[in-house]
Design a protein that fits this description.
Deoxyribonuclease I, Chain A, flat, 6-stranded mixed sheet, about 40% helix, Endo/exonuclease/phosphatase, alpha+beta, 10 helices
Amino acid sequence: MGTCSRRPSFLRVASWNINSFTLRKRELQEVVNRLDIDVMAIQETLLIEADRASVPGYTLYRKERRQQRRGGVALAVRRGIEHYSVHVPEMQTIEAIAVGIRTERYGEITVASCYHPPNRTVEIQDLEALMAIGPALIAIGDFNAKALDWNCLTQNNSGAVLKRFLANNDDVHAVGPEEPTYDGQGRSRPDILDIALLKAIPLQAQLEVVNEGSSDHSPILLTVGKPTPPGGTVTKRRTNWVQFRAEMQRNTALPRIETVDELEAAVMTLETDIHTAEARRLRGELPHATKLLIRERRSARRRSIRTGDPVDRNALNQLSRRVRAALDEHFNERWRKHTEEINEGDHERSLWKQQKILRTQRKPIPPIHGERGIVRTNSEKAEAFADSFELQCRENQLDDEDEDHEEEVERRDNILALKKEDNCEAVNKRHYEK
C-alpha cells in the first residue's frame, strides 16, 4: 500500500483468466491502465515461486502451485488504495487469494481471485470456506460452473452444486455477464465461465465483458457502488501534476527579458517546455497504430466468438500476435528512453537505485500483533511499531521505588555540588591575592 493511502468511494474490479502471466504481462499492463482498474483478479498465472512478476503501479499478491506451472491466482491492487492481505484457507477444489479493501462509504469489502479447474466438481465445503473469509465479499474469477441462472447456455455439475449452495445461502448471489467469457477455442461453444459471487454487498453491481487480450478468456469488469454511464466503459486518465511540475522545474529556466523579441522568444520556449513535459508525462500513452491494432483485434474477437469460423479464429490469432509484438516494442522503447535519461548525479534516478529496485522482490508484510490487537494496513503497522518502540525505550519503573528517598538523594547531591563550587572559588581567590 502506498504512503498516501485513500479509501475509494466505489470499486472497479476486473478478472481475467490470463493463461500465462509471463506471456501476456504487457497486455495486462495496458488493460489495467486503460480501464482504470482498482483491483485486478488474475487466474491461471502458470507461475512458480521462483518467478518474478509485477504490475507497474499496483501491489501484486500471488499464490502458485508448488513446482507446477499450472493454475495459480493473483490479485493486483492499485497503489494508494488502503488495503490488507486476508488469509484464505486451503481448499480441495478452489484456488483463491484475497485482500480487504477499506472503502470510503461502505466499510471493508473483501475481494478474492478464484480459480476452479474444469476437471473437478466444486465441493460445497469449499464454497462455504470461501464465503467465510469476509463478512462482505466479492469472489470473482473462473469458476467453470455453468448454469442458466447466470446466463450460461448449459449447466454442468459444478453449476448444479453452486446453485444448490446459493439456494441455502440467501446473502450470496451469482452475477454473470450477458456475453460469453470463454471463446471455446474451436472445440466447444463459447460460454460464460467467469462470474462473480457477491456476499452481503448492498450496492449496485454491474458486470460486463471486455473483449480484450489474446487469452482464450475475455476479461470481465465489475463496477460496484456506481452505475456504469450509458454508452459502455468510460476510460479516465489521471493527470500526475507532481510529475508534470518536476519536469517543468527540471527543464525550464527563467530568462532575463528586456526587449519584446526576448519576451516572444521566452514565450515560445515556455510553450516548448510545456509540450515536452506533457509528452514525457504521457509516455505511457500507446502509439496510435497500436491503438488501432487493439481495436481491430477487439472486433475480430467478437466476430470469432459469434461465428466460430476457423478462418475468423485464424485472423484473431494473427492479430493477437501483432498486438503482443507492438506492446513489447512500445514498453521496451519506454525502458530504453528511461535508462538514457538516468543522471549519475541524481540519487533518485541513479543507476544504483534502478538496479536495486529491479533486483528487490518486494513482498507485502502480513498482519502483525500490536498493543491494540491485529493490525493490517501500513499506517496501523507504523503506529504499532511506534507504540512498541515507546514501550521499549522508556525509563524502567520498579514496583518498590521510593520517590521520597530519590528526592532526598537528589537534594543532597545538589548541596554537595554547590559546596564544591564554593571551595573552588575560595581557592582561586586566595591564589590571585598572593
